[in-house]
Amino acid sequence: MPFYQHPFFWTLVKILLLLAFLVNVAGLLTWVDRRLGGVIQDRIGPNRAYIPLLGKKLRVAGLLHTAADGLKFFFKEDFVPPRADKLLFAIAPIISMFPVLAIGAVIPMGDTICPGSIVGKSAAGNTVWPWVQRLGQCGIETVGSGIDAYKLAPITLMVAPLSVGLLYVFAIAGQGIVGAAIAGTSSDNKFSLMGALRAASQMVSYEVAMGLSLVGAMMLYGTIRLDEMVRWQNENAWGVFVQPLACVLFFVAAVAEQKRIPFDLPEAESELVSGYFTEYSGAKFMMFYFAEYAEVVTSSMLLVTIFFGGWSLPFFHRDGLTLAFGDNTIFQSHVPHIWMIIIGVLTFFGKTILLCWFQAVVRWSLPRFRYDQLMKLGWRVLLPASLANILVTGVVWLAISSSSASTQMIFKILGDCTQAVVALAATYGIIRFIIGFFTPSVHNPLRIMSAQKRTAPGGNETLPIQT
Amino acid sequence: MPAAFPKKTASLNAVPVTHSEKTLSTQVYIPEVAKGLGQSMKHFFKNWKDLVRGERPDPSTGVLDDGITTISYPEQKRPYPERFRGQHRLTLRDDASPRCVACLCCSTACPAQCIFIEAGEYAEGDERRGYERYPVKFVIDELRCIFCGYCVEACPCDAIRMDTGIHAVPYDSRSQFIYGKDLLMAIPSRDGHHETENPRHEPGDPGHPGVDRLKAH
């Protein structure tokens, strides 16, 4: 068996792909978060880090701030408080970093690859790029003969194709509390301890709502495997349309789990210095800082997978583009399998980046909750709402699945309509974006220079600031 | 019975704080959050476009305009107004001596008492002797100066001006802020010259009132 068809090789490739995306996007987010905050608040934002190049300053719009930050963290003093628990203090950042990266293992980055169907030979002997069937598994081909024969197994684009999928996510996400709690208690600092207590109670509270909000989605999709969930959404409708409440609940709970604004009470600067990592500096602080942004990326990946159709684009299926409403196929065109895989992976990463951007906008828009408001929101709003969501979903799902075939067809057409809505909205958004970009912006200089005002015929003498 | 806490009458200056009403949309919270996010995104897209296309409003004329009006300080500077009171300078005559006649008007007018002048008489035989004096020392302590401009107002000879447009300079020792006569004379105005536009009749010029009057006696 050549090495590039060995499952172990593919696992390595998948880990590299996932980590490369996760680490790079999280690293860039540390800059994007600040630059975007600046731009939202009518400031320029960090743009000054530069490399001297041929007597000029190479700034790249401030992207080098990420590198500068990294360098700064590595060269800073690694301070340990004298009475801290040295061992726990040292491993706390690692513990909080681990679950963030580990969650990515079950997230599907694209459709399952059928290695036997990527390149084919036509009857005339030419190379062709075949397409695969919309539904159904890959045929497992046997290559070679005799003792060298091996089977070409389908390659799922998840690092660990676990059958427990979502349960693994919950199990690992729950470990995030441990890192924060250990960091706070081992620092020998009251602010840290308060931050750790807040972090632990907040994450425990929102863990419940987070888990329960997804139960409705699990019931609908009929699976807890994340790639099967994406397939269901591709065939029917995106999760955000069938489970809109759960989408909002999960998003809120996910932001609370990341301990980001508006739920950043564990590290509330105005109250607790920086909460449970007050005593951390240098590379250890960087791990906390980086874990927060990596968490943004992983939670965006989860949201995309469960509610925004994962790697799927509207009307694009495994076999290509099929524009159909119910049984009425309007347009069909087959696309080679390799292209569908590439489009899928790019779509997944693109959607993830969009959601990361959205989370950054949320961070710069909302004020911080008070602690009692936080608890009230978690236990009195999100938890009952997610329970109600389960009940309603169950009743509606039972009603639909036991209804007649024609009623089910109506829902199927409705599902296809949501795909059309997504496609139209995305097209409109892109066109609007392009048109908006090329429309010159109108500026109204309110304050005219005194000389201009004097020379202007019939100039308005009242100061504009008084209007 | 006198009230322990007399009821305060509403004063004209105090405006009661208006609390926003509790409507359904504020109680549900999500519509208001969506509005806020929309506002953020509006600013983001507009400013991002301005940054990428280089169409930011002019930071000096568009201070009140929408968008990013930041001045990147060391490279860009806010234009000072024409009558900005900056670093002092001593204006010069045509022969490059100071116009100052050491009358001590400026040091008298100075509320911060930052000007020190030691007056000296011109040499015997000089036409100006007995008519005017000259500053042997003219020292301004720039740390004491409050840039009120009274010295400029007080000067009868237009000898001291604050039209250099130079902002207060940061030095690292106090002695560097003591500006002497030579330094003050070396600083040009914002237009780059050391004289002023006001004419001055030197003693000996035809039509100079004072010296003619002296000679007539």
Describe, in plain words, how this protein is organized in 3D.
- The complex is a heterodimer of chains A (467) and B (217).
- Chain A is 58% helix and 7% strand.
- Chain A has a 3-stranded antiparallel beta sheet with strand order 7-8-9. In chain A, strands 1-2 form a two-stranded antiparallel ribbon.
- The N and C termini of chain A lie far apart (80 Å).
- Chain A is mostly helical.
- With 217 residues, chain B is of the alpha+beta class.
- Chain B folds into 2 domains: 23-79, no CATH class; 89-197, Alpha-Beta Plaits (2-Layer Sandwich).
- Chain B has a 3-stranded antiparallel beta sheet with strand order 2-3-5. Chain B has a two-stranded antiparallel sheet with strand order 1-4.
- Chain B is elongated.
- The A-B interface holds A 36, 39-44, 248, 361-362, 364-366, 433, 436-437, 440-441, 443-450, 464-465 and B 30, 33, 36-37, 39-41, 43-53, 55, 57-58, 60-70, 72, 81-82.
Based on helices, strands and strand pairing, what is the structural class of chain A? Answer: mainly alpha
The percent range for helix content of chain A is 55-70%
Q: Which two protein chains have the largest interface (Cβ within 8 Å of the partner's Cβ), and how many residues from each?
A: A-B, 28 and 35 residues
Uncertain ranges of chain A: 459-467
| Number of separate strands of chain B | 5
Give the strand line-up of the largest sheet of chain B: 2-3-5
Strand content of chain B: 5-15%
Q: Could you name the CATH topology of the largest domain in chain B?
A: Alpha-Beta Plaits
The helix content of chain B, as a percent range, equals 10-25%
